[in-house]
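As a warm-up, study this chain.
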Amino acid sequence: MAKNTRVGKSLIAVQDELGTEEQCLAFLEALRWPDGVRCVECDHDKVSKFVAKGRARINRKGEEVRSPDRHLYQCLKCAAQFTATAGTIFNDSHLPLQKWMQAVAIMCNAKKGVSARQLWRDLGVSYKTAWYLAHRIREAMILGNFNGQKMEGTVEIDETYVGGKYNRRGKRERWDKEAVFGIVERETGRIHAKHLPGRSRLNSWTTNQQIDAVVDPAAKIMTDESRLYANLERRGFKHEIVIHSDKEWIRGDVHTQTIDSFWGLLKRGVVGTYHQISIKHLDRYITEFSYRWNNRQNQELFKITVACLVYGIPLPYAKLIARTSEQQASSSDEPF
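Now compare it with the structure written out below.
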């Protein structure tokens, strides 16, 4: 029988149910092996569980301290020993599992995001650890975000530009902002948003590529009057336009209010929570906001996010701080 892995989404509930290492390990065990533990080496189902007591040692102050107990499994077929965290992002982490679970709960509940400095204060870890932890959780959210199924019914499409106010003393030109392109399925609320790098205005060739990859040809598309979407009807799509320049925001069921709501949420997060973010990491922040938007009605959001961490691809610190090709060509990585 499958074990119960449901944990409340609130931070208090997570602390009550996953406040100890043993509770966290039991949660991961039930999440990874709902039908019983299996060997990670040979997939055998005959496994014994035991606790290896921590060893005592003398620290620099001359005090006797004991390392934590290890909760291990041993396969009765190949004799391999492993833990519930084996092969996951948690395996080589020096951060206690309780801190991981609390960070996941905080980020899942923060509608407008949470800064690394806030995590630093809430979790009692260093700023570097909080910053790296937040980015690893955002990277894992990619796995549970847009499922790749093409959008049908009524679809709203729009673009926005992120980059802050123009300052004549800065290096950035007046219109030198980063483009973010978004598509939302009105009936389900699913959103697909993506940073299109290049610090330049979008063109119809770029947007058409995104539309063809995400939108079903039979869908009814709603946009504003931008010339980016002028050829959609010629390409076979049903296309309706709302003219914002004439202060027309809605005409019957023709509007882009859903996608505009998402842009407002994203920009409030950038302005009010993060204040400034690096262009290099912009896509991860967009993924985070899209992930919460797409799962806002999901009662299993916390569990899904932990599962994404378990089964997702880890984000090494060296990769996170590596300079991009654009940064190598420029002498500075200037946030906006």
